[in-house]
Specification:
This protein is an alpha+beta fold. It folds into 2 domains: 129 residues, Rossmann fold (3-Layer(aba) Sandwich); 234 residues, Phosphatase 2c, domain 1 (4-Layer Sandwich), CATH 3.60.40.10. Helices cover 37% and strands 24% of the residues. It contains 10 helices and 18 strands. Helix 3 packs parallel to helix 4 and helix 5 runs parallel beside helix 6. The longest helix is centred in the middle third of the chain and has 56 residues. It is rod-shaped.
Length: 425
């Protein structure tokens, strides 16, 4: 029994080849019959068709963001298909529309001309419905991926803008924190009866963990400190500010190194006891994995006797009147590492014309471009080169020479120093 062959059918279309949503397709052809045929197929497949025979009107339609695919005839009287593609790509870059040129030409140079003009694919005329559908699906997938990429790029642009805004806010907060930190270093040069005290503080970033300061105990005695909190940044700066706050002259009754005597006068604790109290404060109240080093001194401006503790801090330097520099102190444990640490005080006798320098390791550990550090010997040499320079001028000279040594104006670590110049009474 002879069975007639079944009529040809369109190929099975899987979920991978069918666009997820109906498309809006622009059909440009100067032949009304050809336009009607193509539009009928598009509507049959569930798509929306926008039809025109005018290339200039088609360029206006192409600005509609809903149009993702354009079917364009090659041969038209007012504008060829490649010319239309050039105008489209020049005038409209976003959103991107996939252009399928309909042509009866199959020469290689003609196809190259179309691609160079901005076409994405070709379809031979007369149009085969199955091939048209397959090429449309391929174009729809490309457009979908391209628009998803645009969407993600737009989201990334918004995210970057938000990050820039957040970083800007953080920078403004850090700048304000820097100003507040530097405001803690009041009286960068202060005259006492028998001495001058000068301060230098320069964080390596917005804020740092170094702090220097002084406070009056009574008419004869002043307190001096130079401290350096481990690490960098906001956490170190907050600890430095906290410690400076408990060594402040503004609230003497809150100063951890002072006590009120029975007659109401302020008296200074032995430096080893005061630093022990700081150690207890760090371990019980601050409760952080950071620690700090400190040189804490009480100078009697009547006698020139200075009692000090050097808790992990660089050795204080004493320069005799216009003479050599000597290192003092035997060193001790940093503050905030171990409970019940016992610290040791030592004494230095100053004479008129002598000066005492307390400083952080940002100076002595400042590296040269080849990696070699300044170390104690380098700082001593700087001090001895300028025996007659005084106060803030000397500190500025030290800072300038340190910059020359490092080969740069910015330093990898905070630098700070306190200079006591003893004149006697």
């Amino acid at each position: 029994m002879h069975v007639a062959p079944a009529p040809p059918q369109e190929p099975q279309v899987t979920a991978l080849t069918v666009p997820a949503e109906p498309l809006t397709v622009l059909v440009l052809d100067d032949s009304p019959a050809q336009r009607n045929l193509v539009c009928a197929l598009l509507r049959k497949w569930g798509h929306k068709a926008v039809s025109t025979g005018d290339p200039f009107e088609a360029l206006d339609h192409a600005r509609n963001p809903e149009i993702s695919l354009i079917l364009c005839d090659w041969m038209m009287p007012d504008m060829t298909g490649p010319e239309f593609c050039r105008r489209l790509r020049a005038d409209l870059t976003n959103p991107y529309a996939y252009v399928l040129l309909l042509t009866s030409r199959n020469e290689r140079n003609a196809l190259a001309e179309g691609l160079e003009a901005g076409a994405d694919d070709f379809l031979q005329k007369p149009v085969s419905p199955p091939e048209l559908r397959a090429r449309m699906n391929a174009g729809a997938r490309i457009v979908a991926m391209q628009r998803e990429l645009q969407r993600k790029n737009l989201s990334l642009t918004y995210a970057l803008a938000e990050l820039r805004s957040l970083y800007g806010a953080i920078d403004r907060d850090l700048d304000e924190a820097r100003r507040l930190q530097l405001a803690l270093v009041q009286d960068r040069r202060r005259s006492f009866n028998g001495a001058e005290v000068s301060l230098m503080l320069e964080p390596s970033g917005h804020v740092g963990g170094d702090m220097v300061g002084h406070f009056a105990v009574d008419d004869d005695v002043i307190g001096l400190f130079s401290l350096d909190v481990s690490g960098h940044g906001v956490a170190s700066a907050m600890i430095a500010a906290r410690v400076a706050g408990v060594l402040s002259e503004a609230s003497p009754d809150q100063n951890i190194s002072l006590l009120r005597s029975l007659d109401g006068d302020l008296v200074d604790l032995p430096p080893d006891i005061a630093v022990g109290r700081l150690n207890e404060l760090m371990l019980k109240e601050v409760q952080t994995d950071r620690y700090f080093t400190i040189a804490l001194a009480f100078a009697n401006l009547s006698t020139g006797l200075v009692r000090m503790v050097q808790a992990g801090h660089p050795h204080p330097m004493v320069q005799r009147a216009h003479g050599p520099v000597e290192l003092v102190g035997d060193g001790d444990m940093p503050v905030g590492l171990l409970p019940d640490t016992l610290y040791r005080s030592f004494e230095v006798q100053l004479h008129p014309g002598d000066r005492l320098l307390l400083y952080s390791d940002g100076l002595t550990e400042c590296p040269r471009p080849d990696g070699a550090m300044l170390e104690d010997a380098g700082l001593i040499a700087m001090m001895e080169r300028h025996p007659v320079s005084e106060g803030a001028d000397l500190l500025e000279i030290l800072r300038a020479e340190l910059g020359s040594f490092a080969g740069q104006e910015e330093f990898p670590d905070d630098i700070s120093a306190l200079l006591l110049e003893f004149s006697g009474r």
